[in-house]
Every structure is written in structure tokens, then in C-alpha cells.
């Protein structure tokens, strides 16, 4: 495909792709779970009540189980059949008005005091009575992830949340990270694909699947899911469009990639974003073997930004390719 470039051009193209990742902050999977309560969401990142403060989960990781817990108890709490997630009110009752031993506020307060082991035992008891409480499931997952540093133990709790509320973007992103960390990527993708379509009212799950496939080199397979994500919404449209263009480029569908990047450039944006997209356009032209258009793209940028050192260096490098 690079008939007008040499081996030196191949090396340069690889370098440009590396720079693109640095410029755009291109992260295929997750931004990670933060202790801000954003993960306690009923959809599209809007927090529900009883958020977990940033300073929660201050306890140190421990290999010993908390009081009253063993592995079988934890697995049972997370694997109870999902019948739709509930959310507890401030009086310590669920939507069916049943009293509980501890309220979520009590449990969060216990965690805030650094007593995460006690809080974990409280959550196990709470989840026996209310196995589908979204906030309790997330709180338990956070204890596994942050305090115990046990991603595998957190996975079933987050998967249960995802089954009941697949529009929780933070949960989907965290699951993708866990699948990577625990080498359960194929199993994880199979789980995400199994989430019933009727429970989704956004493209969050499809975008997660598509971006993960791009990251694992199956860009052609990702295209279908990224198109779905565009149709359904729920994820910033420009983000999905750029990931789709990246997938086209990686899959060798260069003309479609160029079209996608140019459409994004037409939408405007910060100077940094415009530069990053122009570099991707240059990369696509070089991949197509069109050095003249690559040079002209950089030259046009430098007419408006003559002091841009990176683009000046890029112009020199691609102008000298044989």
C-alpha cells in the first residue's frame, strides 16, 4: 500500500502513529474507577444519591478476609439472579419499604472511617436481603478493587450492575479494564455481548465492545459496534467518530478513515485537537502512498501556525521521504 515510500517511510509512519497516541491521549479502554460517586449512576454518568466521597476506602490492602466473610459468601452475594437493580433511600429502606440492618449511609461512613473490613461484612449481610441494590454492589466492588486490590473479586459485582443497568458508563469502562488486567478479555467480551438489547437505551456497551476490539487488533470487527454506538448515542459523538476512523485506518480502509478525520476537522475544536487530527490525516495519506497530499496538509497547517515546532519537524521529515 505504500508503493511510493521506502523502508525509511515505514519506520517514520510507525513513529507518527506513536506521536498521535501521545497527542490525543488515545486510550482504547478505560479511564478507571474514581472515588467520586460517578460510578453510582443510573445512566450517562449522572450520580445517584448517597455518593461515595473521594476520601473513601482509606484502609490498606489485606490478604485476610474480613469478619464473617469467606470466598463462597462473596461469590454467592454477587451471583444472585438479577431481577433489576434497586436503590436504597435515606431511611435505610429499599423501594419495597423493607427495613434493613444497615443503611448504605452507615456502610459508607464505616468505610470513610478506614474500617473497610467491617464495611465489607456489613455489605455481605445487606446484599443477602437486597441482592440487586446497585449502590451496594458498586460499593462492594470498590472495596475489592481499592482496598483489597482484587480485580477478579470485583468483577462479578460490576457485571451484575452492568446486567441491570448497562447504561452506567463508568461500570462498563471499569469492567473492560478488569478484563485486561485479569487476562479474561474474551470472556469479558462475551459477557458484554450477552447483555440484552432491550435493557440498553444508549450505545455505551457497543462503544465499549468496539473500542476494546480496536485495542486488540480486530478493527474490522469493531466497525459494526461503533456504528451501533453512533446510532444509539450516550457516548460523545466525536469520540465514537474518531474511534471509528481509527478502526478504518487500522483495517486498511484508508479512504473512509480520511473522510472521518476530515469530518471531525470540520467540526472545529481546540488547536491541540485540530493538530492531532491533522497528524492522523497525514498518517492516512502516507499509508495510502500519497506523499504529496501529506506534505500539503502539513504545509497548510503551518500557514496558520508557523511557529509549531512539531509540525515544522514533521514537514521536514515527510518532505525528505523517497
UniProtKB/TrEMBL annotation:
Biased amino acid composition, Polar residues: 51-61, 69-94
Superkingdom of origin organism: Bacteria
Keywords noted in UniProt: Membrane, Transmembrane, Transmembrane helix
Bilayer-crossing regions: 12-33
Pfam families: TPR_16 (PF13432)
InterPro entries tied to this protein: TPR-like_helical_dom_sf (IPR011990)
Region span, Disordered: 41-98
Entry-linked SUPFAM superfamilies: HCP-like
Identification of the protein by name: Tetratricopeptide repeat-containing protein
Organism in which the protein naturally occurs: Pseudobacteriovorax antillogorgiicola
Amino acid at each position: 500500500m505504500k508503493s511510493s515510500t521506502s523502508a525509511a517511510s515505514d519506520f517514520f509512519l510507525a513513529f507518527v502513529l506513536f506521536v498521535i497516541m501521545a497527542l490525543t491521549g488515545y486510550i482504547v479502554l478505560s479511564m478507571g474507577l474514581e472515588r467520586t460517586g460517578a460510578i453510582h449512576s443510573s445512566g450517562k454518568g449522572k450520580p445517584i444519591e448517597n455518593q461515595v466521597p473521594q476520601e473513601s476506602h482509606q484502609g490498606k490492602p489485606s490478604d485476610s478476609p474480613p469478619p464473617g466473610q469467606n470466598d463462597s459468601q462473596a461469590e454467592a452475594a454477587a451471583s444472585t439472579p438479577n431481577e433489576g437493580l434497586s436503590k436504597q433511600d435515606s431511611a435505610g429502606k429499599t423501594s419495597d419499604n423493607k427495613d434493613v440492618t444497615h443503611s448504605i449511609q452507615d456502610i459508607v461512613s464505616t468505610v470513610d472511617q478506614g474500617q473497610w473490613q467491617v464495611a465489607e461484612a456489613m455489605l455481605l449481610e445487606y446484599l443477602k436481603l437486597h441482592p440487586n441494590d446497585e449502590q451496594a454492589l458498586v460499593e462492594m466492588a470498590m472495596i475489592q478493587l481499592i482496598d483489597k486490590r482484587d480485580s477478579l473479586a470485583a468483577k462479578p459485582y460490576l457485571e451484575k450492575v452492568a446486567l441491570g443497568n448497562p447504561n452506567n458508563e463508568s461500570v462498563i469502562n471499569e469492567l473492560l479494564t478488569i478484563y485486561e488486567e485479569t487476562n479474561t478479555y474474551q470472556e469479558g467480551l462475551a459477557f458484554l455481548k450477552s447483555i440484552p438489547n432491550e435493557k440498553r437505551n444508549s450505545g455505551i456497551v457497543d462503544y465499549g465492545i468496539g473500542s476494546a476490539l480496536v485495542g486488540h487488533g480486530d478493527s474490522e470487527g469493531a466497525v459494526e459496534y461503533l456504528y451501533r454506538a453512533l446510532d444509539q448515542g450516550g457516548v460523545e459523538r466525536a469520540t465514537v467518530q474518531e474511534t471509528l476512523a481509527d478502526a478504518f485506518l487500522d483495517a486498511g480502509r484508508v479512504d473512509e478513515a480520511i473522510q472521518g478525520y476530515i469530518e471531525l476537522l470540520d467540526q472545529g475544536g481546540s488547536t491541540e485537537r485540530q493538530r492531532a487530527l491533522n497528524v492522523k490525516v497525514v498518517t492516512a495519506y502516507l499509508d495510502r502512498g500519497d506523499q504529496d497530499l501529506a506534505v500539503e496538509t502539513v504545509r497548510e497547517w503551518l500557514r496558520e501556525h508557523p511557529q509549531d515546532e512539531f509540525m515544522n519537524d514533521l514537514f521536514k521529515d515527510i518532505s525528505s521521504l523517497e
